[in-house]
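Can't paste images in this forum, so I'm doing it all in text. The chain is below; anyone willing to post the predicted structure tokens underneath?
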Amino acid sequence: MSNDLSDLLIHFRMLKYLPNDEVKVMLKRFYPKQAFMARGD
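Text version of the structure:
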């Protein structure tokens, strides 16, 4: 289940909506840059 959530967070780039705080900084250690970027399509 958690792997599916991780895949969805990355695919739909949902982490870009997080505020710039310590939680986002922490998650950047575990998720690729793509998860935090705009989709561009």
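The first helix runs from residue 2 to 11. The mean pLDDT is 92.
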